[in-house]
Structures
1.
Amino acid sequence: MAVRSVSLAIEPGEFVAIMGASGSGKSTMMNTIGCLDRPTSGKYWLDGVDMGKLSRNQLADLRNQKLGFVFQGFNLLSRTSALENVELPMLYSRPAHAGREQRARATRALELVGLAERTDHHPSQLSGGQQQRVAIARALVNEPKLLLADEPTGNLDTQTSIEIMGIFQGLNRQGMTIVMVTHELDIARFAKRTVVMRDGRIVGDQPVTGRLDSVDELRKLQLEQQAVQLAP
């Protein structure tokens, strides 16, 4: 779905959820924000720079330096360890990082998402939630200014989804700007602002009311699970 007549500003430090039915244009919007697609008309400015004036190589460098991507499908290399998967974006950094620095930064990123004890594990040895944590660490390793997440909980169970939202909320509290595409209303309530799209246009843009906190939601879920176990 083409995006048409859209005007959207996202400020540093925001946590925005883009919602809409299939074909609403939210994926096109995400690809445009992530400099994967070029708009055929209008302008897109990122961090004060007009993206329409950059070459393909310049856009690739910008994506590597300023943007982090998290996808529904994890997109991890199956024959490499979690640490090596996280190191991958640094292989394309300019100037290049020394090997020791690459390893240290990748290790810190995995520690940030709670996988300090799984650095040598391959994707097949990790749960879906752990694989998504590796993908988040990979997105963070170059210290981007903007994190883009496309249906990051689409393949995860309820508890793991809340845990992933907890990571995002923690990153956002530290100043990370996050834009997340989701079709799940409950997941969108972990964000601070919701943008709703339909037929390629924005039809809603408002702060989240009744925002969910990951710690509270995990506690509620655990109490519910305990009650089920105690039921005769």
2.
Amino acid sequence: MNRSADPAKNVETRVYAAPEVIPPGERRRHPRYLLTRPVITIPVLADGSPDEERVGEGYTIDVSVGGMSLRIDQSEPPRLSTLVVGVESESSQYHFSTVRMRNVIESSEGKRIGVEFVEPERCVFRAEQLQPWFDARTFSLAPPANEEALTRWCGLGVTRPVVTDYVQVCSACRALPTFRHGCRKCGSARLGNIQLIHHFACAYVGFVEKFEQHGDLMCPKCRAKHLVVGADFEYLAGPYHCLDCNWRDSTPEHIAQCLRCGMRCPASQLSEQQLIGYHVHRLDPLVLIDSVR
């Protein structure tokens, strides 16, 4: 059967009468609610990728906070116990969840499969697995560790790639840099700051050494003496000067240094890396239950 990338196009929308009689002996740990929605089931292989050859189609029978019952139109039940189930919402958008198959009941209407939602740490689409991650060995941001599997899920319309961020990286080796304020001439971070005095009375601003006269502070412009900080004047940060090359300027440069190769350069010379993650519409059992109450 040929399938498009959109699961909604793979399932024929039909209306069924959900059974009112629950098969005897089936355990009920949570209240269940009758629900008839188109559904697809996708077996999950050991490496976390989908088994595209055994995608099932059908409809939901009932739902609880712990699991669901499904009617699947397949000649044989899924061979793997872990499945990704997609349920069509009222907006015709499929929402997905990882489930564990609990039982299979044969009937004249097809196979009824009971599934339970897995624990968050066993979900195929855990949040940390959908995002780029920091590789401490290379000091770089790497694609999701299971990107090959996620690409296969994209082919079924379950996940889709999204741009999550843009970061600055080393233009030589693509690793992440550290940043500091430094000398725009030599790149050194050893900067000094020349202190200024602002005399309130006459608005004169000058270097501290010009105010210092025989152990006292005197304004070189208006000749006022015995100046008191806070009352007569304030200190201001003056020009920066490099302690290595004696460069001076009012503004330091934003300097980057690569964590891997050590290249040091102005931050403006770094390259930009686009980070790609993956998005999946997650199935919330409570939303399904609220829709039938």
3.
Amino acid sequence: MQGMGTNIREIENRISFCNYLSVAQIFLQDNFLLNRPLSSSDIKPRLLGHWGSCPGINIAYANLKERFPNMKFILGPGHGFPALQANLFYDGVLQEYYPEATPNLHGIEYICKKFSWPYGFPSHASPVTPGVIAEGGELGYSLATAYGAALGRPDEFIAVLIGDGELETATALASLNLYRLLGSHHNGWVLPILHLNGYKISGPTIYGRDSDRELLQLFRGFGYNPILIDGTNTEEFQSALDAAMPGSFIIMRTPKGYTGPKEVDGVKVEGNCASHQVPLPLAKTSDEQLRMLEEWLKSYNFKELYDEFADQN
């Protein structure tokens, strides 16, 4: 049962909106609403960015934002920056610091053209991003940062998304002990969420190969009350947030590169490490990959979502 006021449709529309913007930032330099068939000239000459973690970031952020609108959010896999920037754009936060990031077509053009571009936005979360204090490529310390931010602040709620590859680092593993030290009424509530998509840059993750029982026992051993969910099921995510309390640890399974291309040139992409960076690296020069990109973008029904977004703003 979802909490009072939860709107599943709005959450899922936000996820689709931000997924589209995540893809658009990586690939597009024109034709942002697909008002005409996609052409080679619409594609950036150099494709940079990390798609694979973006859909999971968008899922976590949208679900959390619906329930905890004033949350503090710490992103471990900061290489999935297109997703974070899409959400900051959606909420109007980006415009407060970058006036050209207006909630309309001009703003979409601005963030897409400036992504991974000289004197624009970097490919990773960085201190030029509102609310970010560290470079997003340095994985490992997100949970420690979250507990530090909650220390001595009993009214704070801090959600932290940890990549499953990130959890293989010594810093992240050691940080799991912090709940035992800081879990008191003198400090804020930290809700860790493991983004279990099964793969890192070039292969599978250790935790992605663990059974459900092994995962649950691991986090119980550190003193947490783990909740294992299918992140692609919005109602299940919201039910987990209903049940969450200090000491909870959400394990969110999603396929790597979820909603992206299933297969490219005979190679599995969704649910595989091949989705980690740019799943269609030849989109500018290959007619087949350009067609796949257009189908991928159209799958989000962005025009309808954009019209609704523009009306609200």
